[in-house]
Write a structure and sequence with these properties.
Layout: H1 3-13, E1 20-23, H2 29-38, E2 41-44, H3 49-62
Parallel strand pairs: 1-2
């Protein structure tokens, strides 16, 4: 199962669950579009711990679609 397949399965099983995706390669094209439509946030490696903590805290407090983090410049 790919990460996008897992994300889709999570959306089917628990639509209200906020999901942050962590990737080693910034998504492009259709992958980027799929992440934007189904993930609530995505972070690019290497991660900064403050980004991870902020994103997890924001998604936990506010739920779905309130956070969008690309991992760039934050």
């Amino acid at each position: 199962m790919t990460g996008l397949e897992l994300l889709h399965a999570l959306r089917l099983a628990a639509p209200a669950l906020p999901v942050a995706v962590v990737t080693a390669h910034p998504p492009t094209g259709t992958t980027h579009e799929a992440l934007l439509s189904e993930a609530d946030a995505y972070l690019s490696k290497p991660l900064r711990i403050d980004q991870l903590i902020w994103t997890a805290t924001d998604l936990t407090r506010n739920g779905r679609k309130t956070s969008s983090t690309s991992g760039e410049g934050s």
